[in-house]
Amino acid sequence: MKSIIKSMLAVAAIAMMAMACNEPEDITPEPEPPTPTPETSRELALTVDASSIVADGEQVATFTVTLTEKEEGKEDVVTDVTADAEIFCQTTESVVEAAFTTTVAGEYEFVAIYDELTSKSVKVTATDAEPVWVPETDHANVPTPIKWSENH
User: Fold this and answer.
1) Are 80 and 69 in contact (CB under 8 A)?
2) CB contact set of 71 (below 8 Å; sequence gap of 6+)
3) pLDDT per position as a tens digit, 52-106
């Protein structure tokens, strides 16, 4: 009986060793959470130096288009992109230059478009040119020109 117990213990020991020699379970460590990337955003702004001009074809409203790139934890980067942006007049449905002038009175609304971004709109009001005041002449008090005669 002792030999049977010894045999059983030997079989159990061999089984335990066999189990210990098996490849370990695939235990992968938990991956570290990804490092969050800083939040970035881009904003396009259209500004104008005059919100009102005279519609005389001479007064000018000048536009500036800036791109602001914001990254969390860093200082904003502002770039003048006026030369590369498209300035669109929504009122006339046309592209305009950075210097706007007109001879037609009215309210004009503009947006800037750059690199798939669109700015908020700005308005420019063009007013009729002021009439020039000419004082009325009081003909009763205007001296009569003196006529010189050849005989005089």
Assistant:
1) no
2) 38, 39, 40, 77
3) 999 999 999 999 999 999 998 899 999 999 999 999 999 999 999 999 999 999 9
